[in-house]
Amino acid sequence: MSKAGDVFENPITGERAVIRVGTEESGGELLVADLYVSPGGRVAAEHVHPILNEWFTVLRGEVGFRLNGRESVAKIGERLHVSPGTVHDWWNAGEEEAHVVLEVSSAARFEEAISTTFGLARDGKRTPRGCRTSCSSPSCRASSRTCCTSPNPRAPSRRCSSPLSRP
User: Is the pTM of this model over 0.85?
Assistant: First the structure.
């Protein structure tokens, strides 16, 4: 479980998260982090969370978002909500490091997925888009909580990003 001050970094996607409120303090219900994304950095892939809510507040830079296929760029002070079941993607749309406050509820499984995904990236076991390529069976996708999708969100790929999925 995370606590305030913990740091998670993904060298492949250019993301760095510094925890403000961790799952240890919130009993797994809430995670609040300062998220820093380098120019050209992005989340691993377009994905969906079936049961959690995410809120993004842009503090510095410009952040591109794709929510259910619609793209926009959020600027300083803007807050976006990603509800459960929303296919989404985000990236640094500017030329400077972006700083976003990320809030997630129900956070325990999200934290587990991020910790595992970022760890695999540090170990060189992720593609440039951050996805594990060894997960290709339909049962893998069905057992995961967070799955990467293909460029067409209506045609999900079989590459999953959940620590619970098995090849």
Answer: no
